[in-house]
């Protein structure tokens, strides 16, 4: 999804708020728009996705600054002035009303489980969406939380680009097939003396948590020996997920934890790079032994992660308490 899907509207217009709204006004508008368009409350799925994406663009102060800069430049090009179209001068425009005005069978029912009727794409929220003390409706329904961000004072351009590519891969290869899965980006957990370090990406699906690391390598054919990737005599070690997996297992003892490494090539070819499996080394002395599956290119990575998450007994469930805890660990 991109801003072009807004049909000429700005993210602010999709949320129904003015361009210069403060943080409190913006969040209130987002909550109203999310409740009005949410499918479980009779809203339109497409419009709800637009609302969620608009919030991703402007909900975080850093993301909002980037969006405003890009939107202002685009508006100036369209209007021939230095002022963006759709901004304060033109006034807020409420989102177009949904064509669906009646409640449908997809609405979450009451009760502790909050189960929706059976059917394709059905999601169960535990506890039900009526209980906003655990987590608000909009964040409970949002599939992607957080965005790549700078850590510390060192330059992070390459890492941020790689993380953004990883998020896009997860979105297309995993989230599209498992609608109850939630992606949380940028976590840091401390459990007693255990420190997870920075965790780039975590996927929550029912009672399963998948920790995702990624590396970007030149195109070519690589050999996985059980501990490292090799291209000729050049060794590429996967990122260590062991501290994060141990910390999450201690923090979430009732969850099944998995670890996966996405290997990205220089372009967006989902079949590259080629990775041949040749386990000639023992993983007992390597942190690669914590991985659920070998490092993989985007297509195989998606299959592995979907197999891990989708075979769980609660793969259609969003545990809102677990999600709230993960969101609380975002840095």
Strand content: 15-25%
The name CATH uses for the topology of the largest domain is: Trna Endonuclease, Chain: A, domain 1
> How helical, in percent, are the residues?
25-40%
Uncertain stretches of 5 or more adjacent residues? 73-120
The best one-word shape is globular
> Number of domains in the coordinates?
2
> What profile does the largest beta sheet have?
5 strands, mixed
Q: How many beta strands in the DSSP annotation?
A: 11
Determine the structural class based on helices, strands and strand pairing: alpha/beta
- Number of helical stretches of at least 4 residues: 9
Mean pLDDT: 81
CATH architecture term of the largest domain: 3-Layer(aba) Sandwich
Radius of gyration using CA atoms only: 21 Å
* Element-by-element helix/strand order: HHHHEHEHEEEEEEHEEHEH
Distance between the termini: 25 Å
Strand order of the largest sheet: 2-3-4-5-9
CATH class of the largest domain: Alpha Beta
